[in-house]
Amino acid sequence: MTTPEQIDIWRQSPSEHQRLEFKEAKNTIRRIGALLLARRLEDFLDVSRKAPRVVVYSGVSKLETRLDQTGSRGYAVGFQRLIHFVMTQLPQNEVIEDALRKEVKLVPDVVIRELIANALIHQDFRQTGVSAMVEIYSDRVEISNPGEPLVPIERFIDGYQSRNERLAGLMRRMGICEEKSSGIDRVVEAAEVYQLPAPDFRSDFQRTSVVLYGPRPFEEMDRSDRVRACYQHCALKWVMSKRMTNQSLRERFHLGEDKAAIASQVIAATIEAGLVKPDESVGGSRKFARYLPFWA
């Protein structure tokens, strides 16, 4: 445990990379080491407020808080425990599978894992008094981190720029992230596989957040839900060296062939929003029409 004298030395360190030499033990510790490996982050004042925080609400608003828990361990040593804790707090939904009722979590664990890792790695450490947060409501999960995104939110699927390269590199070597711009792809793909509404990525004031919604049938999705899902499906197809078609979009929404006109309406709305465009390489044929993200 750090002594008061050692804490004073820590606080006086002007540089992230400056070493702290303890008089008795002669250990060398850096902030990044404490951030990743500390058993008690509160022992290191410079990074104690960077511990991830999980808040669980009773309903769909912030009016009634059921649980408010701040992590105590470093990111590397506490990551698996953090993911397990968040998963145990998620609401459950009842689904019918093979004529049997089955309880499933609101959001799959692969999505939670990727987005929490992203929030920890890409946060802006220059902002004080704030940390990565996981807020759990009865119908959604919001994961956020300090700092506005370096990459436009529309380019999260194909773009990547690390705010904290050293931290990302160490967490990759520890098996927590891959550092190859595949995390958001995996999140969007999982949303399609589990038939969830598309994740809603947001750039707020000095904060980046993503909202994950529980299962919702196509009929209950509003226009923005459908347009967002269409764009993300189109961008995901592009990074997989494929192209979005009316059929692929119907498969994403679990719509039958008789719903081709509805899928066309969603595509038209997404084109109108400036998020996708027709693939001119196939000409004007409606039968063989394909679509590209607006930046392709």
Describe the protein.
The protein is 34% helix and 19% strand. With 296 residues, it is α+β, with helices and mostly antiparallel strands. It folds into three domains: 4-41, no CATH class; 51-213, Heat Shock Protein 90 (2-Layer Sandwich); 219-293, Arc Repressor Mutant, subunit A (Orthogonal Bundle). A six-stranded mixed beta sheet has the order 4-3-7-8-10-9, with helices on one face. Strands 1-2 form a two-stranded antiparallel sheet. Helix 3 (75-89) crosses helix 4 (109-121) and helix 6 crosses helix 7 (223-239). The protein is globular and about 65 Å long. Residues 1-25 have low confidence and may be disordered.
Quick structural summary:
The protein is α+β, with helices and mostly antiparallel strands and 296 residues long. Helices cover 34% and strands 19% of the residues.
How are the SSEs placed, and which strands pair?
Blueprint: H1 4-12, E1 20-21, E2 28-29, H2 31-37, E3 53-57, E4 65-70, H3 75-89, E5 92-97, E6 100-105, H4 109-121, E7 133-136, E8 140-146, H5 165-173, H6 183-193, E9 200-204, E10 207-213, H7 223-239, H8 246-253, H9 260-272, E11 276-278, E12 291-293
Give keywords:
alpha+beta, Arc Repressor Mutant, subunit A, 3 domains, six-stranded mixed beta sheet, two-stranded antiparallel sheet, 9 helices, 19% strand, globular, disordered N terminus
